[in-house]
Amino acid sequence: MREALEVCRGELTAKGLQVTVNLEATRPQLTGDPSRLRQVFWNLLQNAAKFTPEGGAITVRSRDREGGGVAVEVADTGAGISPELLPKIFDAFERGTSKTPLGVDGLGLGLAIAQAIVQAHGGRILATSAGEGQGATFTVELPAHPEKGAAG
């Protein structure tokens, strides 16, 4: 997550976004491809920056999951997601109807790819929003690094 934040730092700063980072996970040992996981977090941060107007806020948190593993949240004060769109947000080519503050939309593949990567790592990704104009929170839950010698 820290590397993804560094990659996005310029864009976040240029928009005057307030970024709060609270990485509290004490057991962040995960099994997986660091490049692909970095891609997931980069995508979530890029989306948060894209859909949050100048002067808005983005909060990044990590915490230990009950039963092991880690959860990482990226929350923003941006455009939000309508209740009708939430069930489809991870579908390929789904872009919804709301525009970014600059009127620019992507291809609608980033979240579908992020979901596929997270699922390939045995985790899940969730999206929540109180609706349009209410910001959004994306949570990535990843399982713990298996103990050596454990069946996998």
Q: What report would you give on this structure?
A:
- This protein starts with a helix and ends in a 10-residue tail after the last strand.
- Helix content is 28%, strand content 22%.
- The longest helix has 18 residues, at 34-51.
- Helix 1 runs parallel beside helix 2 and helix 2 (34-51) runs antiparallel to helix 3 (110-120).
- It has helices at 2-14, 34-51, 110-120; strands at residues 18-23, 57-64, 70-76, 124-128, 136-142.
- The chain has one domain: Histidine kinase-like ATPase, C-terminal domain (Heat Shock Protein 90), CATH 3.30.565.10.
- The model is unreliable at 147-152 (pLDDT under 50).
- It is globular.
- Helix 2 (34-51) links the parallel strand 1 (18-23) and strand 2.
- By secondary structure, the protein is an alpha+beta fold.
- Strands 1-2-3-5-4 form a five-stranded mixed sheet, with helices on one face.
- It contains three helices and five strands, in the order αβαββαββ.
What tags apply to this protein structure?
152 residues; alpha+beta; Heat Shock Protein 90; five-stranded mixed beta sheet; 3 helices; 22% strand
